[in-house]
Design a protein that fits this description.
This protein is α/β, with parallel strands linked by helices and 633 residues long. Helix content is 35%, strand content 24%. The protein is built from 18 helices and 30 strands. The strands form 7 sheets. It has an 8-stranded antiparallel β-sheet, covered by helices on one side. Helix 10 (326-342) runs parallel beside helix 14 (427-444) and helix 10 (326-342) runs antiparallel to helix 16 (501-515). It is globular. It starts with a strand and ends in an 18-residue tail after the last helix. The mean pLDDT is 93.
Amino acid sequence: FVMCGITGYLGKKQAAEILIGGLARLEYRGYDSAGLAIVSDGKMVIKKKVGKVKELRAVASDMKGTVGIGHTRWATHGEPSERNAHPHVPGDSSFALVHNGIIENFGPLREMLLRKGHTFYSETDTEVLVKLIDDVKKSGGLSLQDATRQALSQVVGAYGICVCSQEEPDLLIAARMGSPLILGVGEGEWFVASDASAFLEYTRNVVHLNDGEMVVVRLASGHQVSTLKGAPLNPALVALEGTLEQIEKGGYKHFMLKEIMEQPSALLNCMRGRVTTAVDGKEGAGGDLHVTLGGIEQLIGPEGAQFSMLDRLRAARRIIICGCGTSWHAGLVGEYVLEALCKVPVEVEYASEFRYRSVVLRPEEDIVIVISQSGETADTLAALRHAKSQGVLCMGICNTVGSTIARETDGGIYLHAGPEIGVASTKAFTCQVMVLSMLALRIAHGRTITDEQYRELVKELSQLPEKIELLIKANESKIVEIGKVYRYAHHCLFLGRGYNYPVALEGALKMKEISYIHAEGYPAAEMKHGPIALIDHLMPVVFVAIKDSIYDKVKSNIQEVRARKGSVIAITDEGNTELDELCDYVIHIPKVLECVSPILTVVPLQLLSYHIAVMRGCDVDMPRNLAKSVTTE
């Protein structure tokens, strides 16, 4: 996987601080090395450093020049080193290039270029692309933009690139295929970035580049967008929502903690305009709450044969949910909720496996739902495109407005969770489960659940933000104390059943990805089919044991662990004292209806993982070997 961050600037200001500031905000995308290329007095000046952006800032902040590019890297080809760090240049340093993605045919291209006499100083696929552009440019007598276009036609793989030129210091080129790239348009200045947060303090006006598109920016004539084949395009200039302050830490030590604490407000924003007293735009009787989801209720399809996504969802014989990591766990919760409320078969697939299996898709009967916080996850995009190629209607659930998944699906629902910067997803998970719950209620209303059930569930959703606030206030100090006890654990089990089995998986994922403690999640009943052999006094076992329809079964599983001297942490309801004698620690949470309980039960697990990771001295926001947005396979 590769999740590098790209910045580019062309204007009248000094580029260095703009580029470095942008890289600092993109550091969640990759952080093993960073570099800048700036055209200064007609010369290409390159500065690179291994490590985080602060290391680059120390050596590059005084670079002079008004056009340049920057990059923060997460290694795929070659170890983290200055020679492998971007930007890369040809032998004469006539231009510089930064790249996010993987050139799949870089091996054959490298061999071809070696035969032509080119030499390579790095192990990267990116340098191969640079030398290919240089070769095409010189052998064909082409301009840099035409050489870039022609070279990219020979590339197989995913890329987002940005190029600046020593020979043309008023030029910036960017192109995209499978890796996110966005153009910011200011007053006489232009910005290129993997994510708009890199330049949001300078402009909110953007052009979203789609796959197979290229933009050429000149100081005198502005920006021109075209296809990679050269056909001119005229994409709309879009004003972005959000402010720079939204992505700052807001006084918290880490983004992850900030985002855990933001979950009440994130859920309120997720429900805003969707859980209301209005029905079909009209005030409902008696002030009862109702769910409205405009993203799936508007008409789609060709003129004369239009339909709504909601109608197709209600008619579907099967729903397939695709996601990766945390989004896959949210999809598993969605499976339980959709099957229980809507009485429709649901399958949840790892997006990375979906297109490589012989999945039998029936376009008239199936609907595929893809889930991705960023809307740019490469495996999820590939699953989406595979389903669309089979003629299946596809719906997206993502957080990033204007992302590729948002543009390529037939309809969908935004999370409205706000920017999530911490690599370990927290508020995106709870908002994904909220969206799936609202979706299930919208499909089931008037069909497979009673009006009384519908009103009760919608009311419960509306109360979840307040319950999370109460949960955190009542339990955070206790969770810190639990963390002090288990910070030195080497292994940990997370167990749950029913709706909370996916929560056990998510709790284990959080623990291992930020604290580096080996953790596994299982359905609680599966413990005796193997994992019980691991249990001893050194093995902490976390149970999600709310008083739901299978509480007694989970309680029996707790007794099995205690019989083997396992150390037990349980999450259960307020007022339930039955587990106090059985468990080492009990975390009590507000009572909640079973089918929406994962939105509550996951929060203590997020906090437990966070505090243990901090106590172990881990870099919580940027855990090793991980990055936020997985934009290639």
